[in-house]
Specification:
single chain; about 190 residues; alpha+beta; five-stranded antiparallel β-sheet; two-stranded antiparallel sheet
Length: about 190
């Protein structure tokens, strides 16, 4: 089943179809200059994350904002004090700017998908959070959405307030983007 999937931050690019999108795996396929992998690989191993480590911030995000326990608000629309529990100051400020734009425009600005799944429609199975790649401070989250294997990669930073998400990386067979790039696009 193809599901139309559009990222507002890249609306000038062709629309992507989730039915043909595969996200990158846990493997170290990126080079030092570019944290995004250069090709899609689906066979990498995923050592499950343990509770209490740096991965806890990602575990807490999915525990509190998973598609099947969704509150009335998505995490990217939470107030500043809630965002700072999960995200570093830079990403939090980008979320707040996006919220201000959406209030002003009374509509969507730079993101129109759930940032945890990079999707609008959900049927999540085989969900796993991988242990952090300590060299790159990356946590991969693997799942199938409507039968399609996907991985969303979280870049973590060790801040004075503890481990926080500093970016989320999305890679498709047609390209890649980061959440920071999407939120940094010019607002309407």
């Amino acid at each position: 089943m193809n599901i139309h999937h559009r990222l507002i931050g890249f609306s000038k690019l062709a629309s992507l179809f989730l039915g043909g999108i595969f996200f990158v795996g846990c493997e170290n396929s990126a080079n030092a200059e570019n944290p995004l992998p250069t090709k899609v690989q689906q066979t990498a191993e995923c050592q499950e994350a343990k509770t209490g480590g740096p991965e806890s911030v990602v575990q807490d995000l999915y525990k509190n904002y998973a598609w099947n326990v969704r509150r009335t608000i998505s995490v990217d629309n939470e107030p500043n004090n809630v965002l700072l529990k999960y995200f570093d100051k830079n990403l939090t400020s980008l979320f707040i700017k996006n919220q201000e734009c959406e209030a002003k425009e009374q509509g969507i600005c730079n993101i129109d998908v759930d940032i945890l799944y990079s999707a609008q429609d959900f049927e999540i199975t085989d969900f796993r959070i991988c242990a952090m790649d300590t060299d790159k401070h990356m946590v991969s989250v693997r799942f199938k959405n409507i039968g399609t294997p996907q991985v969303v990669r979280f870049k973590l930073s060790n801040t004075p307030a503890g481990w926080k998400v500093s970016d989320i990386l999305y890679t498709w067979d047609t390209g890649s983007a980061t959440l920071v790039e999407m939120l940094s696009q010019k607002m309407p």
